[in-house]
Amino acid sequence: MAVYTDVSETDLARFLADYDVGMLLSYKGIAEGVENSNFLVRTETGSFILTLYEKRVDRDDLPFFIGLMEHLASRGLSCPLPVARTDGERLGELAGRPAAVFTFLEGMWTRRPAVAHCRAVGAAMAGMHAAAADFPLRRPNALSVGAWRPLAEACGESADRVEPGLAAEIAGELAALEANWPEDLPGGVIHADLFPDNVFFLGGELSGLIDFYFACNDILAYDLAIALCAWCFEADGAFNITKGRAMIEGYRSVRPLTPGEIAALPMLARGAAMRFLLTRLYDWLNTPEGSFVTKKDPKEYLKKLRFHRGVTSAADYGLSAETETA
Ligand SMILES: Nc1ncnc2c1ncn2[C@@H]1O[C@H](COP(=O)(O)OP(=O)(O)O)[C@@H](O)[C@H]1O
Ligand SMILES: N[C@@H](CCOP(=O)(O)O)C(=O)O
């Protein structure tokens, strides 16, 4: 679930009076999501998403996230568009939280990604990278390689409660990642959480991207590595090379990968698996039992990490030899 903060009808109607959206007709909390409280709001003029930003989102980052969505939408990328208040502001305050209203994006996320979905996501991601190229704000990635050791230390030996030997395995992996993390690869604004639940499809076509609340400046190919992790493994833990190939081809149909990016893909994918292993592990160990949030399984990413550790070249993700050198 993700409704951490209750909103009364009176407060919401008063909040919406600052927007040119007509009278409030109905609203309900949205169960999905992890970070913020989201509500589906219907007014006389249509449907909107109301987001209340919760504790884990730094208020200072909100202009970056909201500005980015506005920038991407202005470049033709399909994503929620922040609705301006009548005074021109995009951010307000509701129930003691920073709050914003977004256009409603039609479509649904796919629970069973197929090859065609992976290709479409690759292309949409590269389109996002291109569209964000002239976005003027910057936000360093707070969850990049430098953040992993403190997260691992915060989990400590308790990691072994999830799997015996995990703390030592993480320590070894961290040392390898810190020593080999690529530098000087093309950078830009990345989504950084382009999982299936953040991509909508409608009638088989990709209808838009949501949830830009991890977006940041980092290595562009790291975004692709994250998506390879999130989309291209099967339920039994096996990597589906056909999906990997489709995603990479989709990406390259919009933005070519440099030889350096291709060579670095296995290390970037190890890092991506480590990043989600650590955040899931931290949440697993620190979210109180009985809390409303559904904890995500860290072991899923441990298995993915082990797979990537065994990868020697991007050919294992589906890049054929001739395209690798092209
Ligand atoms: N603009 C939008 N249009 C339609 N549905 C949306 C929109 N934004 C969010 N949602 C719905 O709210 C859910 C949670 O949104 P998300 O941004 O992923 O939350 P969180 O930041 O808490 O993870 C999504 O899975 C989707 O169902
Ligand atoms: N995608 C992350 C968790 C972040 O959840 P979201 O609802 O904000 O996309 C994971 O799977 O660990």
From TrEMBL:
Gene3D superfamilies: 3.90.1200.10, Phosphorylase Kinase, domain 1
Annotated keywords: Amino-acid biosynthesis, ATP-binding, Kinase, Nucleotide-binding, Threonine biosynthesis, Transferase
Every Aminoglycoside phosphotransferase domain range: 27-257
Pathway membership: Amino-acid biosynthesis; L-threonine biosynthesis; L-threonine from L-aspartate: step 4/5
Record keyword Transit peptide present: no
Molecular function, one GO term: ATP binding
A Pfam family recorded for this sequence: APH
GO annotation (BP), single: threonine biosynthetic process
EC number per UniProt: 2.7.1.39
Catalytic activity line of the entry: L-homoserine + ATP = O-phospho-L-homoserine + ADP + H(+)
Family: Belongs to the pseudomonas-type ThrB family.
Entry protein name: Homoserine kinase
Species assigned in the record: Aureimonas glaciei
